[in-house]
Structure formats: structure tokens, C-alpha cells
Amino acid sequence: MTLTSVLNIWLEWLERERRSSPKTCEAYARDVKVWLGFLDDRSCPMDQFDRHHARAFLGFLSDKNMAPTSIARMLSSIRNYYRFAMREQYVSNIDLSPLKAPRAKAPLPKSVAAPDIKDMFRCIKELGQPAWKEARDIAVLTLIYGTGLRISEALSLARGDAPFGDWLRITGKGGKMRDIPVLDIVRATTDHWLSLSPASDDPKAPLFIANRGGALHPRAVQRLVETLRYRLGLDNHTTPHALRHAFATHMLAGGGDLRAIQALLGHASLSTTQRYTHVDEQALTDIHRATHPRAKS
What we know:
This protein is mainly α and 297 residues long. The chain is built from twelve helices and two strands; from the N terminus they run αααααααββααααα. Strand 1 (167-171) and strand 2 form a beta hairpin. Helix 2 crosses helix 4, helix 6 (131-147) crosses helix 10 (240-253) and helix 11 (258-265) packs across helix 12 (270-291).
């Protein structure tokens, strides 16, 4: 059996056993196929590469102007693929140490200032949309900012999940479930949306619908934020996901516990959440320099 055919078996295993999403499996497949194609072009058997091949592959990716984080992700996919092949004894043991990317510094999360978020909600009301669309857009962005949900998590909610109680149960990455407290403003904006929604009351129907009645697509929410960003002159990093970052950053600035924020965001590792401390440290530094008497001397 060739490693190319093993790829399909691995992808099926990921979807069945790891409950990986179709998009995750597509990304894994794309990464591994780049590597297999690279080896094939150099007439190198897929289980006989060495350090020189790995180094050449890194150069190949760099020449394509791939970001260090993208290279690291691709190499991680390839290593996981080979580990599966070895565990299932499709290939003999392979030294995977050459397939390690240089450590890349993780970029800091980019948040949105609280006054800018307030302006975004004001701007939605000035777009001149039908009342139900305005209510929907306000409810979606309030939900993301008020709970820290990923956009995919917010749009995966069904009609039967609302009206919200005091807590909202979310199934996040890897099928992991977490409970998130619901703010009054989140509950109120969602209730207002439901009172105007032309959607079906079927509990399995999507909570947020598109203009033509189907499930609201993430790209539609991204376009909404792009419109608001353009009208308000906000930075390009102002995206729906930046509202999730704002949720964490503003909670931390308000004295929120790092472990609690980790649980609310659904981060598997505390180190991922700790990146927000650096964002907050910068804000504190700016305040210190702007307000301390000796900083002005």
C-alpha cells in the first residue's frame, strides 16, 4: 500500500475517531499532498526522505512566501500523517526529527477597543436595513463579543438553543463542550432578533438566517464587519474574530482570572490564553507612560 492511499485512510480515521471537521481534514490533506508531491518531483520514496530533503522542503515553502506559522502547521500535519502510518504499520519507523520547523513567535491577538465596538453597533443602526436584518446583525455581534464564541460556534446554534437561559452550552473544537454564562445584553438582543425573525420555529433550524432564509454564512458576518470597518475607519484587523479577542482582552483588563478566561474561550492550553496578558501589558504600559508625572518630564 502506498503512502498516498494511506492518506485517505488517515483522513477517514480523523473524521471518524477524532471527530475532525471536514475543513480540518481538507487542510490536513492539502498539507500532506504538497509534501508528497515535493518528494515525487525529486524521485524520493515517500518513506526514505532525509534531513536534506526536509531542509530543501523548508526552502521550497519559504520561496512561496509562506508565513512561519503556516509552515509550522504544514509540518505538523505531515508528522501526524507519518505517525499514523507507523502506528498502523503501513510503514516502518521513520525519523521525523528533520520535519521540525524553526520556532515561530506567535502573533499577539489583535483586539478592538471598547469605544470602537460601541461605534460598530451604532453604525449598524445607520445602515438603513430592514428591522429584522438589523436585529440579526446586532444579535450576532453581541453574541460573539459577549461570550467570546468563535464565529463558527455562534452560527452553529439552532433555533432550539434560544431563548437563552443563564448559561449556554457550546460544542467547540474537537467536539469539546463548555458552558458559558450569558449576559443580559446578549439575551436581550437575541430575544429581539427572535421577535422579528422570519425564520421557522423548527428547533433544528439555524438560529441566525441569511437574507434568503438559509443558515447565515460566516462570510456574511465578515462582510458586515468589513462594511462597519470601512465606514468607521477602523484598522484592518477589525474582524468578527477580533471581537472574540476583545472579549478576552477586556475581561483580563477588568481583573478576570486567566484560568476562567481559558475555560470560556475553550482553549486547550493555558499558554494560548496567556497571549492576552501581553496585549494587556502593552495597554498598561501606555497608560503608565501617559499618566505618570515623571513620564512627562
